[in-house]
Amino acid sequence: MTSFDYDLFTIGAGSGGVAGSRRAASYGARVAIAESWRIGGTCVLRGCVPKKLLVYGTHFAHEMEDARGYGWTVDGSLDWGKLIAAKNRETDRLEGIYKNLLSGSKVEPILGHAKIVAPNTVEVAGRTITAKYIMIATGAKPELPAIPGIEHAITSNEALDLPSLPKRVAIVGGGFIAVEFAGIFRSAGSAVTIFIRGEKILRGFDIDIRDHLTSEMTKQGIAIRPGSKVARIDRDGAVLRVTTEAGDTHEVDAVLYATGRSPNTGGLGLDSVGVHVDKAGGIAVDEWQRTTVPDIYAVGDVTNRVQLTPVAIAEARGIAETLFNANPSPTDHGEIPSAVFSQPPCGTVGMTQEAAERQFGVDGVDIYRATFRPMKHTLSGRDERTMMKLVVEAETGRVRGVHMVGSDAPEIIQGVAIAVKAGLTKKDFDRTVAIHPTAAEEFVLMREKVKR
Question: Given 152, 212, 333, 436, which residue is catalytic?
């Protein structure tokens, strides 16, 4: 019988790696986890959490403006440095919590870059370690194109720690990271221009989310330049000049690239042991998160499937359940809810209208949609409208997709996602009594079918 140093060795101490390691240890497995940066990973330290803290911090500009409509006299200005410092204190606190969670779970943390050197064998911090199973949870990193002057650009990593607020910001990309930072910078007082190669922001989202959010962002003064591919960036003193392939130039103080993230597979030794990496750079895995090499698993963004923290956590815990608790647990990747913390935010779960029409045919899909001015803004005077939408399979009446743009959309969609996952029908929605007055009640009150 082969003897190993550990039952499970995890590479990467982000949310997925920590969750899976702790779950495995709770079943008596001997577990170690390696991390070359900081315990907590991208989501906790330079992703979801700090980004949303900045969303909260900058959104007070809207709250103070709205308060005047309710009779309050409010004046204030943002100290960007204090906001960043407060954000850093919170992420430091969370890192400490993650360290304590590992310690309390009897998971051994090892600081250093881990490399797989043979089946069941890794090298890290000058040690050669064997493990019955290896789990790769190294996440992803921002991509930067090879264009002249790209060294002048920043990514979301640096954007979270800017020492001062730039007056003019160019954001390249139209995905969720791009629109979230556009809202942060605009609410903080920066002039913001978004450059996208396509015609619309948020590729892959429902068309009504894309169109409605574009309208709301434009109202706030965010300039969106469709069909614009950046060709080069030049520095002239403190000013950066962005030039598109069409020859248009724009002068700004900061250029943020948010054109995608690539899996962190470099230096892991995958080639030497035969772990297959797909054309997109992700580690290929099956429904059990198994790679092409026995006893090596991968979870989260490094697989380049669904780049969402809760998915990585579910995948990693599923591995622990399968391997150490005799509870086979493949992750169900269907009907995964997600949110975009833009301003206003978006929430979505299930099929887009386009996907439903491809599967069931244009006539096989019923669409219910409502747009309205939220009650809050009847007195605030803010020109902001909420959009809510149901995508229904006509034959069965099953609600296949729910989409929303508006205040509290992520909070509302989390609850609605249970109904979509459970396969409830439009009649089930109709039978549900509304909570009045709320925005969420519109999801159970929509009666008239619409089309685009």
Answer: 436
